[in-house]
């Protein structure tokens, strides 16, 4: 039971808004010590964990391209373009992006959209541009809200799209774990199919909230 | 066979170049942080290949985390382009600016759909599972090249421009760049220390016997909550399945295994939407979008995650048994 103290440390650390790197490092060490892991094994775990998870940091290779285009006005151009497409309100744009993100992820194409590839250079500036065109100058909370909803469209679309694709990590984990532990023969296709009802719910719920954002912005900015 | 290691070296070199740029401004804490991070990315290649010991890397990671955690990597005031400059260049270049930006997703698409299945001499050209990553890297490089050709008419820029502008963005991300990997390490340590087994024991003790609905709720909510703590539904799945999913939902109530496990995993994903522990999904976008509130995306996702969790419970309860 003692190891759960390490988990509590994370929760408390995040709640107190301490530096997350320190919280995570300290909690990892404390948990491991309580769990009877030796110091040399702890160092090995830090090394192996870091080396094995480099793929989550790979998005930084896009930064030179994004930065260059940023410098030469990509975000401003995205805003201009959306200014011409009057039908696309912030909510409709983000709901469309959600559909695209979810659809491409369901086809296994998780890497073609993402926070660094599409969200920062294209989608978020367009969403902000559409809001400015419709509501005039945006307040700081409104800007934060549009950015937050843009990020949410990307994440929700990814999570509830990728599980429909057969070869995704989570399906392989389910079949791998269940088949070896409980001696079943699970069909990956069945698992992918049963991800569809939840995917539809996610699309409906989140699209509705994205479309509702237009009204909410109108209300907030009318004051 | 091409694997993703060249890309990690590219990342490492980018971090090292960033360290050099910080050195020019005499910000030595930042120099140490980025230089160590860059070297660690390259050294990791040998750790993964098991040709070098992991502990020196572990030590380096602790130093990097310490440097950042104790405030050695302060934010720099880098010269950002002015709005007027950006506007005038956007007016000049127009929609052509989208060409390099769209290169990244397009090249990634080509790699994922066409190049992934190519074999050379009986071996796949791209190592299994790396097609998307490789495509992203290739797309980024092509986008830089196309971008440089494109902006040249607007303003003569040196080859250092992408590096300088990339470094500006990287430094605005700052130490958060390390957080997702540190969380992966934490997951590994939790696993080694048996945290999962303990949580499973606690939860199966809470489970009231005989009620199908209660068992479904405990499995789904447990997946979500455990994922919030661990930051990763993959870590929660084996634990919750061993504690509730298999013995109660499948063996006792004879549920449809494919449905129960698929929906259980998706219940975990509802948890991922709500946790700062899933930093790469929830914190990194906030930093990339230069938001003031790092928890902004989580706040926008919570009202979707909660009804969606209820949907998962309903789907499992009505369709799974």
Automatic annotation (TrEMBL), chain A:
Sorted alphabetically, which InterPro entries does this protein's record hold?
DUF969 (IPR010374)
Pfam families associated with the record: DUF969
Q: TM spans, by residue?
A: 56-74, 155-178, 190-213
Keywords in alphabetical order: Membrane, Transmembrane, Transmembrane helix
> What's the superkingdom here?
Bacteria
Q: What is this protein called?
A: Membrane protein
TrEMBL record, chain B:
Does this UniProt record's set of keywords contain Transmembrane?
yes
Keyword presence, Membrane: yes
Report the Pfam families cross-referenced here.
Answer: DUF979
Provide the transmembrane region boundaries.
Answer: 6-23, 30-49, 55-76, 97-120, 126-151, 172-190, 202-226, 233-253, 259-288, 300-319
Coiled-coil positions are none
InterPro entries noted in UniProt: DUF979
Keywords of this entry:
Membrane, Transmembrane, Transmembrane helix
Protein's name according to its UniProt entry: Membrane protein
